[in-house]
Amino acid sequence: MDWDGKIDRELDCEGLLCPLPVLRAGKVLRGMAPGAVLRVRATDRMAAIDLPHFCAQAGHVVLSAEERDGVGIYLIRRGEGQAE
Fold first, then answer.
1. pLDDT digits over 25-70, tens only?
2. CA separation (Å) from 80 to 6, 15, 34?
């Protein structure tokens, strides 16, 4: 599935520590349609490990992960299944 660049939801997790970014992202993703894209902003360095691991386990796709000025920016496409 190609990505058209559209971001459907944003989640600001700046200042939150593990496991809150993953827990909040999971909750938001459950409420989104399959194929929708969530942008997560997180300052906890563990999010760089935890979010991709969560996505792999739950059937979501990390479209990109980068750091800008100490903030991790993660684009996650909602998976097709209900594996969470």
1. 999 999 999 999 999 999 999 999 999 999 999 999 999 999 999 9
2. 18, 30, 5
Range of the domain at 15: 9-77
Residues taking part in catalysis: 18
Pairwise CA distance, residues 74 & 71, whole Å: 10
- State the total domains in the chain: 1
> What's the maximum distance between 2 C-alpha atoms anywhere in the chain?
34
Instruction: Report the interhelical angle of 20-30 vs 47-58 (nearest 10°).
Output: 30
Q: What is the CATH number of the domain that holds 35?
A: 3.30.110.40
Q: Closest Cα partner for 15 from 35, 41, 49, 37?
A: 41
